[in-house]
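Curious: why this fold?
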Amino acid sequence: MCDSNVSFTCDDCTTLTNSTGSVEFPEGCLTLALDREELNKINDIYKDSPITTPYPAVATENIQSDSGTFSYAVEIVAHARSLGANKIGITSCAALLKETRQFISYLRGQGFESYCVICKRGTVIGIPEREGTKNYPHDSICNPALQAYILEREKTELNVIVGLCDNHNPHFIRHSKAPVTSLIVKDQERGQHSGRQN
């Protein structure tokens, strides 16, 4: 789809031409390197699919409206309403259950139904008892595939990730039948602020 010889990538750009709608693209821009026929096929995904059609428009509306200054929790609610979703699934790390409960309380206050599944659901033993873990009879593995399965069973219409481990996020997203977004990205060193350098 793109010229494999192009070394220019979007992080090299200083014009943000694709965001502003300008017709002047910098030399080497990936948009210029796109095969137009392939690009049209991709654009048709948004036109023809009842699942993906609303998403680009909803995201753009959120950015262009006052919701661009809101918290991410408020944006998720605006997103859910735009999509007509009534039941929101939450797949949460057990360590962030306090934050998850706060989010669920907010959702209910906004008139949404919710269903929460924590990562340790199923109590599958993955690691035997080890030295230094006397308070735990065993270490249960996280089970993102089971979380996705349960939320599918509960017929959630939008699923929200709250602090799953990095290697568990792709498993949950892959198995989730409903669209997925994230409220909290776990970064224990930086207090859940992954973009913070120190």
